Amino acid sequence: MCDPLALFTIGSNIIGASKAQSAANRAAEAARKVGEFNAGIIERDIDLLEKSRAIYNANFLVSQGRAADAFEREVQGTARNGFGYAGFDMSQGTPIAVLRENAREFDYEQKVAEFENSLKNMQIDDEIEGLELAAEMSRMEGGMAAASAQAQGAQSMINAITNSATTIYENPGDFGLA
After folding, report:
1. What's the Cα-to-Cα distance from 81 to each of 19, 86, 89, 91, rounded to whole Å?
2. Which helix (H) or strand (E) holds 157?
3. pLDDT by residue, tens only, the chain of 178 residues
């Protein structure tokens, strides 16, 4: 004859394990969602960096154009006016040398500004790459937490089945098997 208390104990162990596994599956899904949510926030930051780069580069182009206009109008124009007013021949000699030196200095300043713009873009690229890696890491961490929760649920089920089998094996008479 079957012992009802032993059957109840085995049944409750298996039901409890089933509930634990179900809870672990819900926890796993929540962990995946958290990882994906965090990755989404990080990717939003990437989008903001790309927008700021576009603004920075647009401002750079505008400032380069304004600098060229200002150089021609203010620096070179002032030099020409000064030499012309003083009665110097503008086609040769010192006035031309001064204008060329001014132009070389302006070119140098423009090249420095271009180099600094390139550095800023490289910094933004590095930040974007770092954020992309962080987003991927967030997804991986969510997946890892999900796998861990599912493994705990599976372990709970395996333990319940093992305990039930051990109980039946050790007490076959309680289950009408002796």
Report:
1. 91, 8, 12, 13
2. helix 94-170
3. 577 777 788 888 889 888 988 998 999 999 999 999 999 999 999 999 999 999 999 999 888 888 877 777 676 767 766 666 666 666 565 667 777 787 888 889 889 999 999 999 999 999 999 999 999 999 999 999 999 999 998 998 899 899 888 888 888 887 777 7
Token representation of residue 139: 């997804």
Task: Give residue 110's domain range.
Answer: 4-174
Q: Kindly give, in sequence order, each residue whose CB lies less than 8 Å from that of residue 157, ignoring residues fewer than 6 positions away.
A: 17, 18, 20, 21
Are the CB atoms for 167 and 5 separated by under 8 Å?
no
**What are the phi and psi torsion angles at 9 (to 5°)?**
-60, -45
pTM higher than 0.90: no
Q: Residue 22 has which token pair?
A: 């179900």
When divided into structural domains, the chain yields a total of 1
CB contact set of 110 (below 8 Å; sequence gap of 6+): 64, 67, 68
Radius of gyration from C-alpha coordinates of the chain: 38
